[in-house]
Amino acid sequence: MLAVADFQKPDRIVIGSASPTAIEAMKSLYxxxxxxxxxxxxxxVRSAELTKVAANAMLATKxxxxxxxxxxxxxxxxxIERVRIGIGSDPRIGFxxxxxGCGYGGSCFPKDVQALVRTAQQAGYVPELLQxxxxxxxxxxxxxHRLINEHFGGGAGLAGRRFVVWGLxxxxxxxxxxxxxxxxxxxxxxxxxxxxxxxxxxxAKEAERLYLEALADGRLLLAATKEEATGGADxxxxxxxxxxxxxxxxxxxxxxxxxxxxxxxxxxxDPERLAELGWTYCGxxxxxxxxxxx
Length: 294
Description:
The chain is an alpha/beta fold. It has helices at residues 2-8, 20-29, 45-76, 80-88, 109-122, 128-140, 143-152, 181-191, 204-210, 212-216, 226-230, 250-256, 271-276; strands spanning 13-16, 40-43, 162-166, 195-199, 220-222, 235-238, 261-264, 280-282. The chain contains 13 helices and eight strands.
């Protein structure tokens, strides 16, 4: 459905062809989706192919840059959310794709960045920036697990613990777990001997397909509601920014969890407000401290 909506309301239509006749035919075909203003760009085939992967690589670059900046702000005692607002208000930069988090996933960004890297290498060029974009993203997808480890004192401290994960899809309003940060987290927690109760409004069937063995041996529970998932867990971990996660009842949540502890991979909540409510809250680049368990 998302693909159909994108097709019907395109930001632009890039047509690659060496034939002016073919480009005119494609313009006629796309005319119903091009009525408000001319969105069509007619260029040569090779440039059109490169445009597709380059656009996704550019967006991935913005995400990795913000994640790199978030990791720096933690060390400098700044707040990435305030930095995001500050730089996004510059019209040369804007607010799109400058949200820090636990890394990008899906079928397009990872594939297209990697494809562009390989294409460059095959052409005899070392794509330093693109390689860094991919490296930063792989590092960031492990960020939540590292924060959890820091709090609980390493892998041994996670054995026997239970975590609730809200969100399995790689992004909001999506039913795709390909390259999702949640998968890195689940598999790392299981390797440490922890169990996970997870909830995602769209991903139950895909998670069942991917993790039949974990479901069978009790390492994974797929809950029917976000409230059901939280019962008896040591902490809440957020991997996807679904709107239904943005305004929870924190009193009910505190009653369900063993401790008032949130690891927020999408920066949904205000650290100052949660501190006033007695929560230990750790977002991405928010400057909140996570004290080791005594």
